[in-house]
Amino acid sequence: MAARKLFLLAGDGIGMEIMAEAGKLITCMNDELDLGFECEEGLVGGAAYDACGKAISEGDMRQALAADAVLFGAVGGPKWADVPYDVRPEAGLLRLRKELELFANLRPAICYPALASASSLKPELVDGLDILIVRELTGGVYFGEPKEITDLGHGNKRAVDTQVYETGEIERIAAVAFELARGRNRHVTSMEKHNVMKSGVLWREVVSAIHAVQYKDVALAHMLADAGAMQLVRAPRQFDVIVTDNLFGDLLSDVAAMLTGSLGMLPSASLGVVDSKTGSRRAMYEPVHGSAPDIAGKGLANPIAMIASLAMCLRISFGMNDEAGWLERAISAVLDDGLRTADIYSNGMQKVSTGEMGDALVTKFKQIAA
Ligand code: IPM
Ligand code: MG
Questions:
Q1: Does the annotation mark 165 as catalytic?
Q2: Are 290 and 76 within 8 A, CB to CB?
Q3: Beta carbons of 71 and 19 less than 8 angstroms apart
Q4: Alpha-carbon separation of residue 302 from 78, 105, 116 (angstroms)
Q5: Residue 12 in contact with ligand 1 by CB distance below 6 A
Q6: Are residues 162 and 260 in the same domain?
Q7: Pick the catalytic residue: 161, 226, 345, 359?
Q8: Which of 86, 90, 106 to mutate to test the pocket of ligand 1 (most atoms within 8 A of CB)?
């Protein structure tokens, strides 16, 4: 059996702690199920800057490109607030997305029944919520050129970011959304702002065109992104799959994540182009939450989003549907047992540390897999 190569980039803040818990699960899977994962570790974000003055080193970039999948923790923190823009922690993440060509970012927002009361919305609005946001990740205003600040003199400056999309970029992300909808409730909502943006006009046109030709079996709705944000907090369960551009996807996925009351629990997958020869694709898996420097190093972080990201990795990169399902069942089971890290704690539950949560997940996983 060929080794399965994972590259682990824990990053900054709570990244180290949650990656350590994912590591326990990987070790357990190797020991109990002989899955043959081989892990290498690298540095990204502030940790990489401290070590080499860049947000990710060339060597680590090469390893990320060579791995079957990358697991990513989180980057950033106040310590690096003043480092030069090009080497700020986030630049490492953006470089990975761009150079691995991870154009499709899947962000599920699932409300675990045990946590419905933790949402800022009424439980009856979010109970059973299961939305998938498909965010375009390598284009749009994040990467468009020009991107600059020009000095106009007399204390006046001019800042430009450029929103740019081409047909092919929209087509491929729309196709991902439609394909995924086929395995769900067959409903895609595309969000843009064609009322003010040319890129929105093209987005809508291209999504409609590919739908008409290839995906008539999936229902398609268009929504202006501002109205979409409003509908997400008004009646979130109307959505199944939402497909949108890089910047709107950034905003809308934070809103959707918070609706579930479980920001510390949500995973994501960033997927590249499928290689026509091998059928494989580059991929990176990361929790939706950030590096939370305020609680770093205290054993307070919730490792579930990281471990749920590992489950997505098993399913998508390695086709291990059973093992992924077992891991997800282990997550539900520890919640049903009342275990809670501080972020999701409520009265009457059992408060546990990052490490205790990871250990409990290992124990459950072993039981379920046996
Ligand atoms: C995210 C984050 C990143 C983004 C930051 C850290 C660059 O907010 O993954 O949603 O804006 O894409
Ligand atoms: Mg974001």
A1: no
A2: yes
A3: yes
A4: 21, 22, 17
A5: no
A6: yes
A7: 226
A8: 90
* Together in a domain, 223 and 282: no
Residues facing 339 on adjacent strands: 350
The last residue of one of the domains, among 203, 233, 264, is 264
Per the structure, the complete domain to which residue 178 belongs is given by 107-264
Q: Is residue 90 lining ligand 1, measured as CB closer than 6 Å?
A: yes
Same domain for 356 and 312: yes
pLDDT by 10s per residue, the chain, length 370? 578 999 999 999 999 999 999 999 999 999 999 999 999 999 999 999 999 999 999 999 999 999 999 999 999 999 999 999 999 999 999 999 999 999 999 999 998 887 887 888 999 999 989 999 999 999 999 999 999 999 999 999 999 999 999 999 999 999 999 999 999 999 999 999 999 999 999 999 999 999 999 999 999 999 999 999 999 999 999 999 999 999 999 999 999 988 887 778 889 999 999 999 988 999 999 999 999 999 999 999 999 999 999 999 999 999 999 999 999 999 999 999 999 999 889 899 999 999 999 999 999 999 999 9
Instruction: Determine the atom of ligand 1 nearest the C-alpha atom of 246.
Output: 12
For residues 244 and 362, membership in a common domain is answered with no
Q: Compute, in angstroms, the gap from residue 74 CA to the centroid of ligand 1.
A: 10
DSSP assigned state of 37: E
Query: If you search the block for the tokens 């399913």, which residue do you land on?
Result: 315
Number of domains in the chain: 2
Residues 170, 36 share a domain: no
Burial class (CB in 10 A: 0-12, 13-18, 19+), 321: exposed
Residue 232 tokens, joined: 């997400």
Please give the structure tokens belonging to residue 268: 């994501």
Look up the CATH number of the domain holding residue 45.
Answer: 3.40.718.10
Q: Which two tokens stand for residue 287?
A: 């929790």
